[in-house]
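As described in the Methods, two query proteins were run sequentially through the folding procedure within a single session, without resetting any intermediate state between them. The first query and its resulting structure tokens are shown here.
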Amino acid sequence: MIKVSEAVAGEIVLEKLIDTLMRTAIEHAGAERGLLILPRGDDYRIEAEVTTSSDHLNVVLQQASVTAVALPGSVFQYVLRTKEKVLLHDAGGQNIFASDEYIREHRPRSVLCLPLLKQTRLLGVLYLENRLTPHAFTPARMAVLRLLASGAAMSMENTRLYTDLQERETRISALKDQLYRENLALRDEVDRVSMFEEIVGSSKPLQAALSRITNVAPTDSTVFISGETGTGKELIARAVHKRSRRSGRAFVSVNCAALAPTLISSELFGHEKGAFTGALHRRLGRFEMADGGTIFLDEVGELPLDTQVALLRALQEREFERVGGAQTVRVDVRVITATNRDLTAAVANGSFREDLFYRLNVFPIEVPPLRERADDILMLVEYFVQRFAARSGKRFNSIDKKTLELVQHYDWPGNIRELQNVIERSVIVGAGEVFAVDPAWLSTRPAQPRPRGAAPTRLPSQPRGEREIIEAALAECRGRVAGTLGAAAKLGVPPSTLDHRIKALGIRKTDFKFR
């Protein structure tokens, strides 16, 4: 009896439990045929049928209706109503069920219909019959079957709870993924609103870039945006997305330079639970978040080589694996990338894959620096003054003439981002009805401005020259990286990019603070 009880006690997978229960019941009951009937909603269904032939047991899992063809309907209804067993030693003899249609047609000799109870709750019904032998279900066999029924009821309840738990975990995981997507989309929308909403300007260089946006937006081609820092490359990427057939789906922006090299793959492609220390849950990557929409990879030139390989595969095959996972994830994503670095030089020195560069550079768009958009400066100043004045509750009726001359003759090495910051700062400190900019805020650059059309200082492709230029800039700025007086502004690169290169080259910023 202990073996019979143990046979079903530890099973929590429903299909395996049903198979074990039916085989054990037939082997110990002396029956030729058996049915397991379980509740499904407001109805009952036959979940399994077992038959014997030449010492062989055949268990068939099914979900069939309970009909008069399968078993004695009056016997089954009696068990449902009373929750008591029905045992017929001679089904065709004198008993209240002898007139049942099934018993009259199929003539079973021994019939047993046993309720599976958990306390007073009916979890199922086990039906057994023998068509050859009366009194097949002896007292000894009944004792075994009662023990089996009790263990089966307990195991079925545990199986139900386990299944419910799995379904809830699946729903919770799906809801978490949905919440993550919605949260990402909401943050993305907040970021979009916090930027200036439209591309402002009518100069020829800008119109040339906008014309290329109009050409490529309706397609699914990969777009490569180049331009100096602060020129509005992300705004160009958003404009491409907004005018594409994917505009109703997510636009996911990733600054590759702002991510630690060890976390870039996880951020882009996600990770499985336990993939690394601290990976307590499965996490979707940015590519999955952008499925059906657009992913924008800013500062793509900062990607490490191993991540470049994974990105190349994602571009070619539209598939990847999460970190720590073996399952292939397929996505439908349009890829837009941007950089302020010279990737051809990076390809030449081996820090950027040549095959990936050609995959990204399908349709290039170059964003002109602000110094080449002199005709747009006054329009941009008016736009930013109105925007920040409205936000701070101020009102300016005019712009100081000296300010107009100042902004038009300054070459704006930080481009639109620098102009935007200067205007916002001036609005904050401004008083009265005339808007003005403090000339001191624009005098921190070298006395001799760059000639128009000249490119800002770039980090060279060769490591030795790069170290020398970075160290010289740090020495001049006393170890400071960020801000208008920092080395990043002097070199014309984002502070995050410069920090990344400083760490990669092993330069100590503290060595330059007191020079």
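Immediately afterward, the second query was submitted; its sequence and tokens are:
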Amino acid sequence: MPGVRKMILSHVMSGLCGKMNRVKHLDGDVMETPLRRCLNTFDMTLLGVGHMIGAGIYVLTGAVAKDVAGPGIVISFLIAGFTSFLAALCYAEFGTRCPKAGSAYVYTYISIGEFWAFIIGWNIILEHMIGAASVARAWSGYVDSLLDHAISNTTVLITGEMHEQLLGRYPDLLAFGVCISYALLLGIGVKGSALVNSIFTIVNLLVILLIITTGFYYATPQNWTRNFLPFGWSGVLAGAATCFYAFVGFDSITTSGEEAREPSVSIPFATIFSMGIVTISYILVSAALTLMVPFSQIHPTAALPDAFAAINHHWLKYMVSVGALCGMTTTLFGSLFSLPRCMYAMASDGLLFEFMSKINPKTKLPLYNLAIGGFLSALLALLFDLEKLVEFMSIGTLLAYTIVSSAVIVLRYRPISPPSIPLTPGTEDSSPETESCSPVSDKSNDTASAMILAGHLRTNYSWLTPVFGKCEPGGAVTGAVILFICASSTFCITFHFSKSILHPEAWWTILLNVFLLMIIFLCVFVMVAHQQNTTGLRFQVPMVPYIPCLSIFFNIELMIHLSVLTWIRFIVWMIIGMLVYFLYGIHHSKESDPATTYSMLMTSSEAGKSQWGATTRTAIKGALMARKHKEAADKKPIIDEEEIVQ
């Protein structure tokens, strides 16, 4: 009997690991979708810009410049923008590979596995929920400050204060109402809400241009020359980790890929354009602010209006307020726009509850998810303070960026077997017709060779065959990526805590850091030594694996600078997510049955005769029959009775 128990346990564990590591299969045309494809490159660019330029530029800039980095905030924004741009390139390549809703969640599901995809999707849900709640709270606080705190004083007078450390000082009814109102506005449809977002974003950009022009006109260079880095380089890095919050939101472009007319063109262009516009805007605004006002005199919460009031330009103060409200409105739009689509993608795969995968036939929107996401975001905005919300936002985003960058490397070195493409011209089955089309055949042969040889050692590195020759194609690169992440994490932790704990002058500390750097460079060398597959990509991340590796390293470095309390909250949220996955998602995943993948019900010869996403009787019958066979197979005993008797 102990042997029987061991066999049963090994069967269960192997099945569990197989379920956690199964990947998403996208069969058929990835352009087929039940959503409405109506967004162009301009709409998606303004969607990304509007999601990123909001509370960060009007609220965050003053606090970081005064208390964290000083005028060095310009370098902080440059570092945070560069780190986000590296991740944005990886998102853009994945967006052209798979133009589906869900962004990093879908990318991870395709390349790495279901368990890690659920972790990413679960954190993206948290990111957008907290993003919407924090911006709604900032929106309410900005209006309250313009009205000389009349709203907060009246609310406290009626409801009293909430004497609880984890909650805000008072329930913010205005922030609650703002979240609900914008969620209702998004329910009118994609094109209508995109038009409203574009108008607010253009107004915001015009106000920012006015701020930059006026700020540089009244600049005082002595504000920089006296003390440019008052808090040192540690302050610059800490400021970069905080300023990273300002760049959260470009993934809304890839999240809307399932509603883009030409995703292979719109996603990369919109991502690059929006990141460039936002990074330049943040750097110029922070430079104008710190040149106008000495960093010690900057108002931490209303920096720009106070700065223009100090130079007797009160009319600019009101213009800044208009831009701030427009900017925070578009940021709130971006979060509430992305949140229901991520929930829809996970529910369509069976990892969240089935009713969340329903699409309204009239608006072509996941209205259930919009209602749930809007209400939960409004509830967070009602009860929690802005500072407590912002602290918890960056960690999930940085983790998502890290895994997406890793997935780009894994997929680039993964071979794909092309169906029935001859590898060499002039085979036995070749006919005179094929011989007359030798240029086309050569091109097909090159494509087939690139697809099959991906993940194998390059010719120049054939001397590594005794070491990596027995590995599966792409397996050595996958192992190198995992080791690179572990070594980078250890190096960043060691470097971060070396000043206070590890004594950087100790010889063993130096030896440890040198050893870790050698492992990091060795991992990159192993990746470079293998062949890539770039066939069929309209947009490619340049300099792979160097740029994705840099993105991974910078993301890990910024995560290390987050507070311990943020990590504790992250662990609690992940425990809740693990309960959802192991009690529901792992048992209802569509990938548990090969005949019921995400696109199986949308792929048939009749798909072209109906609207996108129409399910045909043939596909449904095939899925039901396959499920019946699978259930019958699952009822068979693992061990025969004769083996138990023996």
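The chain is about 70% helix and 0% strand. We note this only descriptively and draw no conclusion about the first query from it.
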